[in-house]
Amino acid sequence: MFKKDISPGSKSKVKSSIQRALRTQLCTTYPLLTPYIDEVVPKKEQLDAMKIPERVTLYLINGEPVFFQHMTDPLLPHLKLVHRFPQAFPRIRIDRGAIRFVLSGATLMAPGITSDGGRLPGDDGEEWGAAGEHLEKGAPVVVAAEGKEEACAVGLLTVGTKEVEEVGKGPVVEEAHFLGDGLWRLNTE
């Protein structure tokens, strides 16, 4: 979505009632984020909305990007927020071979996730969201890379994770934002 450089648009202050609604929406969409919501969107801080190309609204606190929304799609976290709170978002892991494709903005395909280095949220274990829970089609997800600490992309699932396990091929994540893209480089000041 943001493969090219983008220019900042007009900023406007978000009403406190809308800010409360966004906080609630974030907690609903990302239950793991609930313990950190006062750090992510503090009640006493001013939330700003910046319009950027492709009908996207970028939300900022003190000039720092927090999350963004394309039209009526779910709120997606900015990667800078994901790097601050990596445990607060459901994620998948890609193998080393898929990294270069993800960082060029390609749609993430199933073989990059179902191979030995990949991992789905429904897999038993560790820090991968709630163990044993599968994500549905259209769910927002963070993409981590094998052997790397920081997440490399954020996007929406094009198929459910259970279907990815069963079929093992085809597109899985439509990327919205990745490291080094126009949104990452956007000057919000």
Verbal overview:
This protein is of the alpha+beta class and 189 residues long. The protein has 2 domains: 11-84, Sulfate adenylyltransferase (Roll); 86-178, Sulfate adenylyltransferase (Roll). It has helices at 16-29, 37-40, 79-84, 99-102, 111-114, 161-167, 182-185; strands at 11-13, 47-52, 56-61, 64-70, 76-77, 91-94, 108-109, 140-145, 151-157, 171-178. The protein is globular, with a radius of gyration of 16 Å. The relative contact order is 0.19. Keywords: Cytoplasm. One of its GO terms (cellular component) is cytoplasm. Involved in translation.
Secondary-structure blueprint:
Layout: E1 11-13, H1 16-29, H2 37-40, E2 47-52, E3 56-61, E4 64-70, E5 76-77, H3 79-84, E6 91-94, H4 99-102, E7 108-109, H5 111-114, E8 140-145, E9 151-157, H6 161-167, E10 171-178, H7 182-185
Parallel strand pairs: 6-8
Antiparallel strand pairs: 1-2, 2-3, 3-4, 4-5, 7-10, 8-9, 9-10
CATH class of the largest domain: Alpha Beta
Number of domains: 2
Q: What's the story with the biggest beta sheet? A: 5 strands, antiparallel
Category from helices, strands and their pairing = alpha+beta
Tell me how many strands there are.
10
Strand order of the largest sheet: 1-2-3-4-5
Label the CATH architecture of the largest domain: Roll
